[in-house]
Specification:
Largest sheet: 6 strands, mixed
Number of domains: 1
Strand content: 25-35%
Structural class: alpha+beta
Order of helices and strands: HEEEEEEH
Number of strands: 6
Protein name: Phosphoribosylpyrophosphate synthetase
Length: 111
């Protein structure tokens, strides 16, 4: 039986998902598409799936909230993108991830 480790920090989760193969860091470009950090690849929402996500709350300040999305693209590229959660969230990241999430819900309904 595998012992469940307590994963409380963004750094611990990032370390864990990187060991699972999610090594690419993504960002949202000026064109509102998901980009690799080197801009060599970019993806539409239809080409991305949210595998998992983690929310983190600031211990001393509720404004210190973050979310980490674990993603896989239609090319098999695996990685993550993080964002502030709540007041300081990046509107571009939120809009892109909402499209990905909505597409996933539609796929689930048709299964």
């Amino acid at each position: 039986m595998e012992r469940k480790e307590e994963l409380t920090s963004l750094v611990k989760i990032l370390d864990r998902v990187r060991k699972e193969g999610y090594k690419t860091d993504f960002r949202i470009g000026k064109d509102n598409l998901l980009h690799t950090m080197d801009d060599e690849q970019k993806f539409d929402p239809e080409q991305v799936q949210i595998v998992n996500f983690y929310r983190f709350e600031g211990e001393s300040n509720p404004d210190d909230m973050a979310i980490l999305y674990v993603l896989e693209t239609n090319t098999g590229l695996k990685g993550t993108i993080s964002d502030a959660y709540g007041t300081y969230a990046d509107a571009k990241v939120q809009a892109f991830m909402k499209q990905v999430e909505d597409l996933g819900k539609k796929l689930d309904r048709h299964s």
